[in-house]
């Protein structure tokens, strides 16, 4: 997942193929999926100023590095976090 600013997102095609899943509490953020192949798209239809989307939907190579891990309390026991990025039990706390 990568966070992007809404004003930097340009749709080239396929917006009509996006389906939205509305989660049950305690989760509150809708998730988007491709109706054709089922690929997770993150919150690509969000109206917020910035939001997370799946990095694989972007064209080209991203020159970014992981800054944090969220919901580490819910990760599978077999998944090992192998970097020094900050970890949060749930959503990152903003100050």
What does this protein structure show overall?
It is built from no helices and seven strands. By secondary structure, the protein is mainly β. A three-stranded antiparallel β-sheet has the order 2-3-4, with no helix packed on it.
What would the average pLDDT be, to the nearest integer? 88
Give the N-to-C terminal Cα separation: 22 Å
Apparent shape: globular
> Looking across the biggest beta sheet, what order are the strands in?
2-3-4
Number of strands: 7
The helix count comes to 0
What is the CA-based Rg, rounded?
Answer: 15 Å
Sheet-strand content, in percent, reads 15-25%
Element string (H = helix, E = strand): EEEEEEE
Low-confidence stretches: none
Total number of distinct structural domains: 2
Work out the helicity level.
under 10%
Largest sheet: 3 strands, antiparallel
Computed structural class: mainly beta
Architecture blueprint of SSEs:
Layout: E1 2-5, E2 18-21, E3 31-34, E4 40-42, E5 50-53, E6 68-69, E7 86-87
Parallel strand pairs: 6-7
Antiparallel strand pairs: 1-5, 2-3, 3-4
Sum this structure up briefly.
It is built from no helices and seven strands. Strand 3 and strand 4 form a beta hairpin.
Annotation keywords:
two-stranded antiparallel sheet; mainly beta; 0% helix; 2 domains; three-stranded antiparallel beta sheet; 95 residues
